[in-house]
């Protein structure tokens, strides 16, 4: 078992999300940065969708009541194991009684803690991802206990050396360009607006979370609202007053604003690690070129 001594800002168990349930108005959920989470699982030789702990900005302090093999994956963070620093994107081991403290995520918004075999969590509608109203809890709190998957004690040991050819591609996140393709209502913009959309530099506003990221600049338009239509993570909505809203993993499943762009999978994890005032520019995906 793992005891939560301090919960951090927002720490939740996540996998790759819930699929096939949008018709019930249930969000997809899942990890915000699928690249970093998958990288951690790959280093541990886990399945890609093994459950991980998603840490937001300020992380938890965890006491391990059993030994475990772990990876912390992300851009830059201050992490201590029994007051000793731990490197990102490398396999390390903990023993019974050890305390791991993710003090601060210093670059990006999210860090992922993965364990060999994955963490155990309640599975609802095919996913263990926390979501308020679907799972029993939305985030970890002080005093909670959760555990490693039983496979953790029976599978072979993992090591960074085994995957020495793997390199965490941090350049994915330092690049300001966000990959997109045209959304269903993109054609409602005139040619000048379409060009402006791809030639402008935008900045992330202070309004961002697991549901949506809002951009600071307004984009003037005279588009009418549309009939309520399906939306998915990565859909870029344009409101009548010019707000650009990018839906993320916990977003609703329908919306009534024009869907002018759609982020690619890569675009979603790139944006997920952007912070307030960071600049970004939309670019058409390689698939569309």
UniProtKB/TrEMBL annotation:
InterPro entries on file: CT_A_B, Cyclophilin-like_dom_sf, PxpC
Ranges where the Carboxyltransferase domain occurs: 23-287
Keyword Metal-binding set for record: no
Keywords: ATP-binding, Hydrolase, Nucleotide-binding
Protein name: Urea amidolyase
Naturally occurring in which organism (per UniProt): Psychroflexus planctonicus
């Amino acid at each position: 078992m793992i005891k939560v001594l301090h919960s951090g800002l927002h720490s939740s168990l996540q996998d790759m999300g819930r699929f096939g349930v949008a018709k019930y108005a249930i969000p997809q959920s899942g990890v915000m940065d699928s690249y970093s989470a998958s990288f951690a699982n790959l280093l541990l030789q886990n399945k890609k969708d093994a459950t991980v702990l998603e840490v937001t900005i300020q992380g938890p302090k965890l006491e391990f009541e059993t030994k475990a093999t772990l990876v912390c994956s992300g851009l830059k963070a201050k992490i201590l194991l029994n007051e000793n620093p731990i490197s990102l994107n490398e396999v390390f081991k903990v023993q019974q009684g050890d305390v791991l403290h993710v003090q601060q995520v210093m670059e990006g918004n999210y860090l992922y803690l993965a364990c060999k075999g994955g963490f155990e969590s309640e599975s609802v509608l095919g996913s263990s991802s926390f979501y308020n109203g679907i799972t029993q809890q939305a985030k970890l709190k002080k005093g909670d206990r959760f555990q490693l998957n039983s496979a953790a004690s029976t599978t072979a040991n993992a090591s960074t050396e085994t995957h020495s050819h793997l390199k965490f591609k941090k350049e994915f996140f330092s690049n300001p360009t966000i990959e997109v393709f045209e959304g269903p209502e993109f054609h409602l913009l005139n040619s000048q607006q379409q060009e402006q959309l791809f030639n402008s530099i935008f900045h992330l506003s202070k309004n961002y979370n697991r549901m949506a990221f809002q951009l600071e600049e307004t984009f003037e338009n005279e588009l009418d609202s549309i009939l309520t239509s399906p939306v998915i993570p990565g859909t870029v909505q344009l409101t009548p007053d010019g707000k650009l809203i990018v839906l993320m993993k916990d977003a609703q499943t329908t919306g009534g604003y024009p869907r002018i762009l759609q982020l690619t999978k890569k675009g979603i994890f790139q944006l997920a690690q952007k912070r307030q005032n960071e600049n970004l520019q939309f670019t058409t995906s390689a698939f569309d070129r």
